Amino acid sequence: MLLRFFDCALSAAAMWNRLRKNVVYFFINFLHLFTATMEQLTEYADRFLAQAPACDYWTLRLVAQDSDHLEVRQGVVEPSTLASSLGAMVTIVKSGGIGYAATSDLSVSGLSAAVARATTWAQAHARLGLFDASVHPRSSTRADYHAPVLESWKALSVNDKLALLHDANHALALDERIVDWSAWLTRQRSAHLLLTSDGGRIAQVFESVQPGLVAVANAGSQTQRRHGGGADWAQQGGLERLAAVHFVDDAPRVAEEALALLTAPECPSDIRDLLLLPSQMVLQIHESIGHPLELDRILGDERNYAGTSFVTPGMFGRYRYGSELLDVTFDPTVPGELVSMIADDVGTPARREYLIRRGILERPLGGALSQARAGLPGTAATRASSWNRPPIDRMGNINLEPGEGSLSDLIARVERGVLMDTNRSWSIDDSRNKFQFGCEWGRLIEDGELRGVVRNPGYRGISAEFWRSLDGVGGPETLEIRGVTNCGKGEPNQAVSVGHASPPCLFRDVAVFGGGA
Amino acid sequence: MNQDSFFALTDRLNASLSGSEVLFCTLNGEASDFVRLNRNRIRQAGHVQSSELGVMLTDGSRQVEGHCVLSGEMKTDLAQVRQVLARLRERLVEMPPDPYLHYATTASASSRFVGAQLPAAAELLATLIAAADGLDVVGIWASGDLSTGLASSLGHRHWHQSHSFNLDWSCYLETDKAVKASLAGLQWDGAALLQRLEALRHGLRIMARPARTLEPGRYRAYLAPAAVNELLHMLSWGGFDLKNHRTQQTPLLQLVRGTRQFAPQITLHEEHQRGLAAGFTAEGFMKPDAVTLLAAGQFGECLVDARSGKEYGVAVNAAGDTPEALALAAGDMPEAEVLARLGTGLYVGNLWYCNWSDPNECRVTGMTRFGSYWVENGEIVCPIKVMRFDDSLFHLLGDRLEGVTCERELLLSAETYDGRSTDSALVPGLLVGGLTLAL
Q: Among A356, B253, B331, B379, which residue has the least CB neighbours within 10 Å?
């Protein structure tokens, strides 16, 4: 299985290496009771409540995660992996300080020990902290959320799932120049229970089925990969996702396009119009809108690792981020999008907000603590990757709102350009300004019509200028709800899923390039 | 969880196996303090205690894998893992025979403890904050116990435990003008901290000069060890994995086929003998002391994990498909002569966010970051605005390589995605005749 990662703060290579070693750990860890229920989490919570700590404020966040991974590579079933994780994060606010402790020991004594460790760190923070912890948000919210699942993971037997994967393998191996191929299905389920000393109780269950296909083609010194079948199209949901992403049926296209890339000319290197399909818009939004708007970056927390931002507090409400066509929302209400939820990990109710409206920057991506520190509005954006990491500012569902017209309409407006599809390379500076992205698939556009395939298509730009060249946004019928499953950030490091919805978008006069030494 | 608890748990599990079942259990445990700093104050501080059990259950030529988290309490953990095994047995019968199932059939044992007790983390943080008064320090302190265990029903019993710290930090002057340092190891050294702080203060004085904005183009450059390490990370991304080689996916394909070369000064080893990471694999194989990946500019051996080893009939020499303990050979250029040999060009302290631009050509893009300067006539003149490079490693480690420093730095990974990393790299600095800046 060839995983793909769309953001990594320090090193894309390091992220790749980490995940290659831990194939199933998209979300770090998973549940120890393969069928853990919210009732079981409640039992652990009751143990904690029976000896609730004396302090100014506390939260208990229990997380149970599990995954099931099936994969067939070159017709051979890879080791099936069932993975799980269960643990608790205790946060203590006391005397102006805040500390946390995470533990997988959910016994009475284990939870008590966690409280003691968190209290010790709260005391250190009270002496040496960056801010007075009394500004930490409090929550009394009580709410529930369950990801929409139409078809249960168990609706297909393991044998039936393996049969699908074998079928896909057969369809991928259509030429001897296909030198490697693989098909996979991964199911992930994550149950979260947040309790607070103010009476808050938020129970959320997230579930997804992520299928994928890859074909690798080689001729001489040219090797090309093509992904499909949902490999970069993650959503919440169940097995109904297989039909939505044309799993298996997509296999011949994936293999044929990998082969076509072997003999395609290199993408030209010059200045042209650029038409990005939603599969690449996901990455463009993620890196050059999502990350720069994170309030903890703006506050400097991430400067040693993920970086800072070219966005400054004074820009909100007046800065022209992009053209009049640029409308971007934080929207946790889109059914099935990866980070649709009822509240974040500190209990802030999640609601739709405009981040950029008609090109003007309105609001950062920052949770309640960052909002208090910065004196700015924000979003319900405080999330943690698992029970063993503290919550920090993260993207949720960051969506580029649709405009008007079809993909054909956008193509018709291009005299000389390139269409690019499916991200394969991503790099941007620590202020989230100078970027360079590469795609798997390119097509020339000439005189309003799609022309031949080009390989190794890439483009460069500067965030602060790029979005102002936005000159076309597809209509609602072209919108695709996607996301990324490995957004890396934070110290200690955390990888989370992020939702992005976008139509295809047209940019004018962009520096494009192809491969070669 | 300590080794006695781990082996006691796995002994009980092994005793419950039936028929021809074989069980391999691995443990990855940590008890870590993590303290984030911003503006030389504590931003976020806490503790993480976790023990993750990996299980490989086989029966004949069928196999299935599982992972779960342990509490550390025997009765609870035993009941939980037995539930996991029951679930795995259900799955096992649904799996076809696996032609690439591979584990060590000869029992082996080892036990290794490295490091010593450190002062309390809160105490050390107070020391750092006091010593760095007046500096805008941002970064993370991570410290505590790391343990890796392996036990099998065939008799394997291995344990590797370390107690270490890693302070990964930088100091900012303004916006993105910053210098970076790391201080990591097994023994705390207060004098080393003060030395790092003095070096950072010196770097900030240079950073205070007006930054130079460079035009895209090709520049002579010195790549400091941290920058070179980023390039080695890229080579590690598919460069040495046997499966990637056999399926023509390696970015080193042209090197292997002899159509491109690295310079003769480039010799690269995977040094398992360094001993920071466990010396055994999850399947019970012992890692060799070293694997020669590149020798005098030519490709050497691939890294071979258990599964790829079986698939391609090659001996196992690694736990996974990426290096854990790289060592790039030292050269003959004294570090003291670097600026003079550079003359006029770039001193690149760190590279960041690298990715393949065209893997077929081993072409990499990325950014300059901390501690990067413009040099004229052998003197550092001023910092540079961040720049994007886009260049082939066949050039940077090949025809444009002019020198390799005698001195090398041991860089301990600060990565913490799956717990605190035990990866490391021993790296010299490199002088190159041209680094192509694209944006």
A: B379
What span, in angstroms and rounded, lies between the C-alpha atoms of B279 and B274? Answer: 9
Q: Determine the 3-state secondary structure of A416 from DSSP.
A: strand
**What is the tens place of the pLDDT at every residue in A410-432?**
999 999 999 999 999 999 999 99
Q: Chain B contacts of A28, Cβ < 8 Å?
A: 417-418
Q: Is A388 on the interface with B (CB under 8 A)?
A: yes
Q: Are residues A241 and A138 in the same domain?
A: yes
Question: In this complex, is the C-beta atom of B298 within 8 Å of any C-beta atom belonging to chain A?
Answer: no
DSSP state, residue A314: G
Do B233 and B94 fall into the same domain? no
Residue A246 sits in the same domain as residue A274: no
Q: Does A108 touch chain B (CB under 8 A)?
A: no
pLDDT for res A36: 59
In a 3-state reduction of DSSP, which class is residue A293? helix
For chain B, positions 205-234, list CB contacts with chain A under 8 A: 230, 233-234
Instruction: Give the nearest chain A residue to B322 (CA atoms).
Output: A17
pLDDT attached to residue B147: 96
CATH code (residue A139): 3.30.2290.10
Question: Based on the domain organization, do B248 and B197 belong to the same domain?
Answer: no
* Helix spans in B74-139 (H): 74-92, 121-131
My answer on whether A433 and A488 are in the same domain is yes
Chain A within 8 Å of B115 (Cβ-Cβ)?
no
Asked which of B166, B187, B207 is the last residue of a domain, the reply is B207
Q: Do A326 and A285 touch, CB atoms closer than 8 A? A: no
pLDDT for residue B116:
76
Q: Which of residues 359-418 of B touch A (CB under 8 A)?
A: 359-361, 363, 365-367, 369, 386-388, 390, 392, 394-395, 413, 415-418
Is residue B212 situated within a structural domain? no
Domain containing A213: what range?
A: 31-263
B68 and B175, same domain (yes or no): yes
In a domain, A428, yes or no: yes
> Which CATH number do you get for residue B38?
3.30.2290.10
Query: Is A86 within a domain?
Result: yes
On whether both A371 and A258 belong to a single domain, the answer is no
Question: Is A201 in the same domain as A283?
Answer: no
Same domain, A486 and A350: yes
Q: Does B94 touch chain A (CB under 8 A)?
A: yes
- For the question of whether the overall pTM of this predicted structure is more than 0.90, the answer is yes
Q: Give pLDDT tens digits for A15-63.
A: 444 433 333 333 333 333 444 589 999 999 999 999 999 999 999 999 9
Residue A71: CA count within 13 A, CB half-sphere: 25
Check residue B275 and give its pLDDT: 81
What are the DSSP E strand ranges found in B187-315?
217-223, 268-270, 291-295, 298-299
Q: How many distinct helices (H) and strands (E) make up chain A?
A: 11, 23
Q: How many beta carbons lie within 10 A of that of residue B72, not counting itself?
A: 19
> Which member of B56, B233, B307 has the closest CB to residue A14?
B233
List, for residues A291-324, the tens digit of each pLDDT value: 999 999 999 999 999 999 999 999 999 999 999 9
Return all residues near A314 (Cβ < 8 A) that are at least 6 apart.
Answer: none
Do B227 and B188 fall within a single domain? no
Across the interface, whether the CB atoms of A429 and B353 are under 8 A apart is answered yes
ipTM: 0.96
Domain that holds residue B379: 217-437
Q: Which of A17, A159, A262, A494 to mutate to test the interface with B (most CBs of B within 10 A)?
A: A17
Task: Kindly state the percentage of chain B with pLDDT values over 90.
Answer: 96
Residue A180 CA to residue A169 CA, distance in Å, equals 10
Cα B388 from Cα A513, distance rounded (Å): 15
- Considering chain A, what is the average pLDDT of its residues? 93
Q: Are A123 and A94 within 8 A, CB to CB?
A: yes
**Cβ within 8 Å, pair A495-B320:** no
Query: Domains in chain A: how many in total?
Result: 2
Q: Do B354 and A12 touch (CB under 8 A)?
A: yes
pLDDT in tens, A321-368: 999 999 999 999 999 999 999 999 999 999 999 999 999 999 999 999
Nearest CA in chain A to B169: A304
> Hey, is the C-beta of B188 within 8 angstroms of any chain A C-beta?
no
Lowest mean pLDDT: which of A254-263, B107-116, B365-374? B107-116
Residue A10 lies in a domain: no
Which residue from A101, A104, A158 is facing B94, i.e. has the nearest CB? A158
Candidates B69, B355, B420; nearest CB to A104: B69
